[in-house]
């Protein structure tokens, strides 16, 4: 059963949306998606809701937010860490692909700005028995990746800084992006070291906002719009928990395995050639480099050169994160859905920072202690796959 | 009209049961022993020890003592203070101990942490390190103060 | 295309000294053994259970996924009582899975559950009043008893019946019988609810192996079909009636519609009676008893002992589901309905099973 994205809405992401409460932010995103699709809430048959509870200081926020989703509809809550945004999309996609529903909305919200400091919250994800004492948060884990990659492939701090330059430049064109700052390589290199070797401008912000994506079954999708974004393939993978189990921090092999499965399902033989644009979950500069290599867009050790050489800029051969990506906007539990929605906009031809002629897009999210990945391929041409 | 903000704290106590495997590991620390388990199917020695091997999906009950020295896989030095987390600077890393097939998260220390480039040079991936133990051990993960470069 | 249960595994339900993921491992292993397959034959893992405060670990599925056997496989988690994961498992099997494991993890003993549930209330209007779950359930009980003039003794008799059932179920947590006097003399938790009128928290995990029909028939000769599922939600704000559970009715209607069945075909019920009053209200909402008379229902309900005997925060619904499935497998009944609830009696999921 073919399923397509027929609407995408998001709220302008800020450090803190003081003007709205939790369900009110969700309401805003839902209305934005409905407007994009030209639909009303009563048309939606089911809702899949995603959020990482602790950041927002509300336990099981779906209970409160159900008031914004259309009471009495079947509403399902998904929560899988950083991949939440995309697993919510995946679950909503399956609601329709199963044949049980024709029109389903995925909605994700995260108000990281409500939480005074995100790292201690992330620290609660780390095993209290063996590891929590280390004060580990997300930045440390990315720093581990950076240290290992730089030692193995000789990448320089400057190589990594170029990823930040690219993402910030792209974000300037995205009306919804959180951080809008034109930064140069020196700005990045001179910013304060947070967890070595990563510096402040190489790290994602804490963002507050919501996003919603509407999925429709094939016939309905064609009636709703003439440029739906077809979901060609999706996959998710789960590795073991302990950080020390990773074979190498300089490679992301679990992502490579997921990528192989995704491309096989999508009928893509040469990702570098066949994918026109990718929205990757790169919360820290180093992660994009690892993701490019894991997904086969760059050979091992070459990912470090792509930003510097312009390959991943909007007019390069392999544009990534034209929306500005996670480095400029990170409402953690919703981020995956924003990636997915932005990828959909690209193949619809409606993105604010549009890649010329994009027909096939890839969307990615990762979560846990480098443990989970969720991937999807969207296409404007339903013949693909 | 100024929008009100409510400051709220979550103060929720938990008592986490470590289970048999972790308890045995912590008892081992009292004797300056680092214990792992070997999976009977894949043969990997897993540190920290756990009740089952994820790869083979079988229970792991064969105990193995690994050395308290090994090789650095990666590290980072933290310079920013985060609410409720240790005061900076502190260095954490993943160390693969001799005899283990998986790395273990731990503190790195015994050196001046103010210049991260120096620390990264001292502890670069591949460097051999060994545990510095607390004098009075309590059967907690902090019985190992940190790992320092092996001389 | 039918979807059926081909394997079931229970951990013990009690107070565990092992972390929840080790308990989950036991349930997963048993389910695989029961189905006679390896974890490699399972292509999708749908986890059900609470996150962060529920088990004291944020992203709790990081620990539960490897326990289920999801190493380098597809895994997703429904963050709610695990019965709510069943619809997703069904949908995944209909769209792209051959064999799916549903793993339910529930762990209460490490957690101050009432304090945790309190954090689900908005911090502006409701949380500052410290309206805990027992207090809210008590408000419902009070409304129910007043509205329909139900004597406490009748509700005590419900508890006695449920505890009798629990005493005959080796899988249940509470296996001691109680007498009406025991119930009516037990201390007040929040007026009018007494301790023995409420479910007690425990730990425990359940795993089920489900498969699409063609493959199911290769795995098992004794398949329990999932004919229909339904789920619905009530208003979060107290703009609702306290003595009724219309969202339970809606979830059941959706399940009946999908199953193309009606009440008459259902021989046995497993319902999430977190209190004796809920036992009555749910029966009434499901249409098996008249309004206000759920306490006199003498049909086949909660032969497992219900939630009143086994309530592991997160896996209660799956426990009820698995118990019903086992009965159908043994041929005791051929069609049953299972219902679960979460939140401040706000969300409900219902499933209809058939042999």
TrEMBL record, chain A:
Every Thiolase C-terminal domain range: 245-379
Domain of life: Archaea
Span of domain Thiolase N-terminal: 3-219
Keywords for this protein: Isoprene biosynthesis
BP GO terms, sorted: isoprenoid biosynthetic process
Pfam families: Thiolase_C_1, Thiolase_N
An annotated Gene Ontology molecular function: acyltransferase activity, transferring groups other than amino-acyl groups
Protein name, entry field: Thiolase family protein
Automatic annotation (TrEMBL), chain C:
InterPro entries for the chain: Thiolase, Thiolase-like, Thiolase_C_2
Entry GO MF terms: acyltransferase activity, transferring groups other than amino-acyl groups
Annotated SUPFAM superfamilies: Thiolase-like
Keywords: Isoprene biosynthesis
Keyword NAD carried by entry: no
One biological process term in Gene Ontology: isoprenoid biosynthetic process
Any one Pfam family match given in the protein's UniProt record, by short name: Thiolase_C_1
Thiolase C-terminal domain sequence ranges: 248-354
Highest taxon listed in the record's lineage: Archaea
Record protein name field: Thiolase family protein
């Amino acid at each position: 059963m073919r399923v397509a994205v027929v609407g995408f809405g998001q709220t302008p992401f800020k450090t803190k949306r003081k003007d709205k409460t939790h369900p009110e932010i969700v309401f805003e995103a839902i209305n934005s998606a409905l407007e994009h699709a030209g639909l009303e809430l009563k048309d939606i048959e089911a809702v899949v809701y995603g959020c990482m509870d602790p950041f927002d200081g509300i336990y099981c926020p779906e209970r409160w937010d159900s008031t914004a989703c259309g009471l009495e509809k079947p509403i399902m809550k998904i929560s899988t860490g950083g991949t939440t945004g995309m697993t919510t999309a995946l679950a909503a996609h399956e609601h329709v692909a199963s044949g049980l529903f024709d029109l389903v909305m995925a909605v994700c919200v995260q108000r990281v700005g409500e939480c005074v400091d995100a790292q201690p919250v992330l620290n609660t994800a780390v095993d209290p028995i063996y590891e929590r004492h280390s004060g580990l948060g997300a930045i440390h884990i990315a720093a581990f990746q950076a240290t290992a990659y730089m030692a193995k492939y000789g990448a320089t701090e400057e190589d990594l800084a170029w990823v930040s330059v690219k993402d910030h430049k792209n974000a300037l064109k995205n009306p919804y992006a959180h951080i809008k700052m034109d930064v140069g390589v020196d700005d990045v290199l001179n910013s304060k070291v947070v967890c070595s070797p990563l510096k402040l401008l190489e790290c994602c912000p804490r963002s507050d906002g919501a996003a919603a994506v509407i999925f429709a079954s094939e016939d309905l999708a064609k009636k709703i719009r003439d440029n739906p974004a077809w979901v060609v393939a999706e996959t998710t993978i789960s590795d073991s928990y302990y950080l020390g189990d990773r074979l190498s921090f300089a490679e992301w092999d679990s992502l490579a395995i997921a990528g192989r499965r995704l491309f096989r399902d999508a009928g893509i033989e040469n990702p570098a050639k066949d994918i026109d644009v990718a929205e990757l979950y790169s919360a820290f500069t180093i992660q994009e480099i690892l993701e490019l290599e894991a997904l086969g867009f760059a050979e091992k050790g070459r990912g470090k050169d792509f930003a510097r050489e312009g390959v991943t800029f909007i007019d390069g051969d392999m544009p990534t994160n034209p929306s500005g990506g996670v480095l400029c906007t990170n409402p953690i539990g919703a981020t995956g859905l924003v990636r997915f929605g932005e990828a959909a906009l690209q193949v619809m031809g409606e993105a604010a920072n549009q890649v010329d002629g994009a027909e096939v897009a890839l969307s990615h999210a990762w979560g846990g202690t480098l443990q989970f990945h969720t991937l999807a391929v969207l296409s404007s041409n339903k013949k693909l796959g | 009209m100024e929008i009100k903000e409510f400051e709220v704290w979550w103060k929720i106590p938990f008592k986490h049961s470590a289970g048999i495997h972790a308890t045995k590991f912590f008892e081992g620390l009292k004797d300056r022993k680092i214990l792992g388990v070997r999976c009977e199917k894949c043969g990997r020695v897993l540190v920290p020890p756990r009740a089952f091997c994820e790869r083979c999906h079988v229970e792991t009950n064969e105990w193995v003592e690994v050395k308290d020295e090994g090789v650095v896989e990666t590290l980072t030095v933290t310079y920013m203070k985060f609410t409720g987390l240790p005061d900076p600077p502190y260095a954490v890393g993943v160390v693969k101990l001799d005899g283990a097939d998986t790395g273990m998260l731990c503190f790195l220390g015994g050196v001046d942490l103010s210049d991260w480039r120096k620390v990264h040079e001292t502890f670069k991936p591949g460097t051999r390190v060994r545990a510095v133990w607390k004098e009075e051990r309590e059967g907690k993960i902090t019985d190992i103060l940190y790992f320092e470069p092996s001389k | 295309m039918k979807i059926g249960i081909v394997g079931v595994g229970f951990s013990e339900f009690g107070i565990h000294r092992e972390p929840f993921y080790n308990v989950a491992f036991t349930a997963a292993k048993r389910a695989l053994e029961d189905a006679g397959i390896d974890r490699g034959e399972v292509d999708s893992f749908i986890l059900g259970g609470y996150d962060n405060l529920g088990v004291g670990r944020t992203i709790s599925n990081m620990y539960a996924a490897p326990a289920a056997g999801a190493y380098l496989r597809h895994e997703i988690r429904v963050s709610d009582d695990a019965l709510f994961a069943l619809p997703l498992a069904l949908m995944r099997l209909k769209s792209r899975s051959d064999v799916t494991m549903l793993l339910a993890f529930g762990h209460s003993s490490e957690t101050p559950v009432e304090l945790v549930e309190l954090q689900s209330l908005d911090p502006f209007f409701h949380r500052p009043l410290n309206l805990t779950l027992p207090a809210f359930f008590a408000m419902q009980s009070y409304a129910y008893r007043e509205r329909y003039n139900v004597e406490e003794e009748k509700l005590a008799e419900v508890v006695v019946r449920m505890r009798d059932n629990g005493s005959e179920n080796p899988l249940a947590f509470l296996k001691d019988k109680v007498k009406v006097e025991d119930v009516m003399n037990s201390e007040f938790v929040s007026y009018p609810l007494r301790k023995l009128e409420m479910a007690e928290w425990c730990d425990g995990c359940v795993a089920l192996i489900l498969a699409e029909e063609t493959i199911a028939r290769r795995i098992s000769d004794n398949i329990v079909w999932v004919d229909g599922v339904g789920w619905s939600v009530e208003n979060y704000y107290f703009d609702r009636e306290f003595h009724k559970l219309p969202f339970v009715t809606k979830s059941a209607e959706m399940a009946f519609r999908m199953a193309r069945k009606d009440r008459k075909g259902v021989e046995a019920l497993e319902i999430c009676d977190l209190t004796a009053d809920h036992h009555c209200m749910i029966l009434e909402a499901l249409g098996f008893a008249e309004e206000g008379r759920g306490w006199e229902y003498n049909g086949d309900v909660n032969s497992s002992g219900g939630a009143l005997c086994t309530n592991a925060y997160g896996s209660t619904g799956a426990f009820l589901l698995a118990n019903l499935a086992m009965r159908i497998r043994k041929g005791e009944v051929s069609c049953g309905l299972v219902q679960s609830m979460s939140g401040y009696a706000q969300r409900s999921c219902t499933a209809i099973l058939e042999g």
